[in-house]
Write a structure and sequence with these properties.
9-stranded mixed beta sheet; 6-stranded parallel beta sheet; 14 helices; 37% helix; globular; binds 6-O-phosphono-beta-D-glucopyranose
Length: 482
């Protein structure tokens, strides 16, 4: 796309998301010369920050290896405007600042300019700010794009309400709903792996795949975020969005093109084929203090009610009722305060139908999203040497060794670049969001109405006792890794 003069507004500029993700991502793009040549970044928030205070905040997360010249040049593009979220006059002032900058860039009156409104804001002020933007800052002479982040409501109904409110203000092609998992290198790699190589697609179905596991594990609890987390729980925090998005990419049929609507049509079709998840197919957990007492339990956090039944661990088994996947269980597991940091997709293949060799273990294709980007296939080989025994080995594509020195960008950097290019492929469409909520809403409502007690598990453990057994029973997967 041609280099149009661009103003990026960051609402909530003094907050955590902006500081930790939005500005570092913008800086990364700047360093790699990927921001349009004529760009201004305007931070907007309520805090009374001087220019220097604001710059200090922005700088604090730019990374140790950032050169000071680069930082100075980047900050030269940034401004801070203090304003309230519900006062129209403050937005008028903001617009004037933007117009002043645009005319300095030689963009005044130019019919084609871009304005990006990045909402790094809590959901409570979301619609108010979007309304003010639309009425005061939005400009018909520009290409306007609004970027929003979860939580997109807390169930189907509230999400629909939010979509309705947003769609009264912005056209769907102006809205970019971020799910940052869609910006992760290994997630973006899935369609390439599947549709650029002849042999994956050949076995990518119920005839060859026994089950699929999608696992998200974090080794830390909700420390400091207990207040937010307790209202949401692990299903709303990562399962309904991040894990379901990954699932839909692993499961989708080949899109007609790589265009955003074709891709999102295919993903949405997958979600439409999933029945709402039942409580009996779900196992919930909540962490307690670590065995040695050094790590606190979830409810030891002062911001969490003492009688909270919010799940910090969830495992569910779901099915996709279509030709490709009928009968294949998908095991989705997510938990906080577990024994390790890991996000992966494990595709377990069926046993060999003949008995020429003893059955040692099943083949598996593993896509590790983090922390170690890799794709590997668990493969049986003859034990090397004089032995004729079988051994389990791996065809291993570990990015760190294969692509030494390649810097894998943070998900936010690639997603903001997509926004600048107007590419929606890696953003969630409103019907897709709707389907994702449809799958989880009855379960969430039931859990809340019945105050379903989660099973305790120790901070730093593998999760609630019985979780493995639960999945094995329902999904019939066999443990490998001999
Ligand atoms: C966020 C969740 O969306 O994703 C957090 O709110 C979670 O609870 C985070 O820790 C995980 O993202 P990443 O990129 O660190 O895997």
């Amino acid at each position: 796309e041609e280099d149009l003069p661009t103003t990026i507004f960051v609402f909530g500029a003094s907050g955590d998301l902006a500081k930790k993700k939005t500005f570092p991502a913008l800086f990364h793009l700047f360093q790699h010369k990927l921001l349009p040549k004529r760009t201004r970044i305007i931070g907007y928030a309520r805090s009374n920050l001087s220019r220097e205070d604001f710059f200090e905040r922005v700088k604090s997360h730019l990374g140790a290896d950032a050169g000071s010249d680069d930082i100075a040049a980047f900050l030269g593009l940034c401004l801070y405007v203090r304003g309230r979220y519900d006062v129209p006059d403050d937005y008028v002032a903001l617009r004037k600042v933007a117009e002043g900058q645009e005319s300095a860039l030689g963009a005044e009156g130019a019919s084609r300019r871009v304005r990006v409104y990045y909402m790094a804001l809590p959901p409570s002020v979301f619609v108010d700010v979007a309304t003010q933007i639309r009425h005061t800052v939005y400009d018909d002479a520009c290409t306007n794009r609004i970027v929003i982040e979860k939580p997109f409501g807390h169930d189907l109904e509230s999400s629909r309400q939010l979509s309705k409110d947003i769609s009264a203000l912005f056209a769907e092609n102006e809205v970019f709903r971020i799910d940052h998992y869609l910006g992760k290198e290994m997630v973006k790699n899935i369609p390439t792996l599947r549709f650029a190589n002849v042999f994956y697609e050949a076995v990518w179905n119920r005839n060859y795949i026994a089950n699929v596991q999608i696992t998200f594990k974090e080794p830390f609890g909700t420390e400091g975020r207990g207040g937010y987390f307790d209202e949401f729980g692990i299903i709303r925090d990562v399962v309904q969005n991040h894990l379901l998005q990954v699932l839909s990419i692993v499961a989708m049929n080949q899109p007609r093109s790589l265009g955003a609507e074709d891709v999102r049509d295919r993903k949405t079709e997958v979600l439409r084929s999933i029945l709402p998840i039942q409580l009996e197919d779900t196992l919930l957990g909540q962490y307690v203090a670590s065995a040695d007492g050094s790590k606190p339990g979830y409810k030891d956090d002062d911001t969490v009610p003492k009688d909270s039944t919010t799940a910090t661990f969830a495992q569910c088994v779901l099915h996709i009722d279509n030709d490709r996947w009928c009968g294949v269980p998908w095991v989705i597991k997510a938990g906080k305060a577990l024994d390790e940091a890991k996000m992966l997709i494990r595709i377990q293949f069926r046993d060999m139908p003949n008995a020429l060799f003893p059955s040692l273990a099943r083949n598996e294709l593993v896509i590790q999203v983090s922390p170690k980007e890799s794709v590997y296939i668990k493969t049986i080989v003859k034990e090397p040497g004089l032995s004729t025994n079988l051994a389990m080995s791996e065809l291993d594509l570990t990015y760190k060794t294969r692509y030494q020195g390649v810097n894998i960008p943070d998900a936010y950097a690639t997603l903001i670049l997509d926004v600048l290019n107007g590419d929606h492929s890696n953003f969630v469409r409103s019907d897709e969001l709707d389907e994702a909520w449809r799958i989880f809403t009855p379960l969430l409502h039931q859990i809340e109405a019945e105050k379903t007690a989660p099973l305790p598990y120790a901070y730093g453990s593998r999760g609630p006792e019985g979780a493995d057994e639960f999945a094995r029973k329902r999904a019939g997967y066999k443990r490998t890794g001999l």
